Amino acid sequence: MSMKRRFRSALFLPASNARALEKVRDLPCDVVILDLEDAVAPEHKATARDAAVAAARRGFGARTLVVRANGAGTPWHDDDLAALAATPVDAVLLPKLDDAGQCGAARAVLGMDGPALWAMIETARGLLALPSLATGAATWRLEALVAGTNDLALDLRCRPDAARTPLIPHLAAIVAAARAGGLVALDGVLNAIRDEARLTTECAQGAMLGFDGKTLIHPSQIAAANAAFGPTEAERAWAARVVAAFADPAADGRGAIALDGAMVERLHLAEAERLLADR
Ligand SMILES: CC(C)(COP(=O)(O)OP(=O)(O)OC[C@H]1O[C@@H](n2cnc3c(N)ncnc32)[C@H](O)[C@@H]1OP(=O)(O)O)[C@@H](O)C(=O)NCCC(=O)NCCSC(=O)C[C@H](O)C(=O)O
Ligand SMILES: [Mg+2]
């Protein structure tokens, strides 16, 4: 997966919803996630899988295409992985990942050249597995961690408020594991699809925590996520000033300089270059 790809907006849709499958082709999300798991009723699991495979074969252009399989231990998991092993998708998203060993088992079915793995962190046991996921990521070609805030709140029996207060330490832990393992980190969904103000606040909170983007459930949520993640104009302007300041011969041989009344070190230069390259 190219690190130049963007992951600001990752739209889920049920693979059983033919209308949504068509509609998503014209939507400006960075990532399309076809769901086979919780958004699909048990009686539609097989047809949803077939629809996801057919849609993937048609392709989704430059966007990252991910299919969320049913979880390990469910009646549909093995058939999902077997079908996806031979399907042109960028990644298979494993839900409710409880144990890093599930990545190894999935990789064995998908094959080393098959789709990459993404993992949803949405259980207490998933939180405990974060260090193992970060250290073993390369072995399994695990490329992203996705916060599953609905299931996580249920499993923890916490009661998130509008500011997601009880979830914040766990969201930060997911970001930390992603950074340690060189993975993409995606924030959880906002269920309130008509609450624009809350969406804007939640996207800003996710960006502040360090997420690369947010998972979404409705087309109306894409614009806010695209606007919130990635460098702002002010950050780009700051980055350009930092690069220019270090390029000045006066900065030769210096590790730290003063800029706009603040200390700037070479670690900030690296961050500025990353921002300007939009990585
Ligand atoms: C939430 C919805 C069920 C709402 O659907 P609906 O009432 O049909 O919405 P609208 O009438 O406002 O839709 C307007 C048009 O947009 C299309 N649409 C809606 N949603 C999507 C979508 N996700 N992708 C593509 N297109 C979409 C409708 O078809 C309408 O089109 P048109 O006919 O042209 O007007 C619905 O939005 C939905 O199903 N969303 C996705 C649900 C989902 O995938 N859930 C699973 C992932 S989230 C999760 O599991 C949480 C996580 O695991 C955790 O634990 O937190
Ligand atoms: Mg979930």
Automatic annotation (TrEMBL):
Keyword vocabulary terms for this entry:
Lyase, Magnesium, Metal-binding
Binding positions for substrate per the UniProt entry? R68, E122
Residue stretches making up the HpcH/HpaI aldolase/citrate lyase domain: 8-219
Mind telling me which Gene3D superfamilies this protein's record contains?
Answer: Phosphoenolpyruvate-binding domains
Q: What class of enzyme is it?
A: lyase
Q: Report whether Magnesium shows up as a keyword of the record.
A: yes
Q: Name one Pfam family in it.
A: HpcH_HpaI
Q: Tell me, which GO biological process terms does this entry list?
A: oxaloacetate metabolic process
Please state the Enzyme Commission number of this protein.
Answer: 4.1.3.34
Q: Which residues of the sequence carry a binding annotation for Mg(2+)?
A: E122, D151
InterPro entries (UniProt xref) = Aldolase/citrate-lyase_domain, Citrate_lyase_beta/mcl1/mcl2, Pyrv/PenolPyrv_kinase-like_dom, Pyrv_kinase-like_dom_sf
SUPFAM superfamilies hit by this protein: Phosphoenolpyruvate/pyruvate domain
- Record's family? Belongs to the HpcH/HpaI aldolase family.
Instruction: List the protein's name.
Output: Citrate lyase subunit beta/citryl-CoA lyase
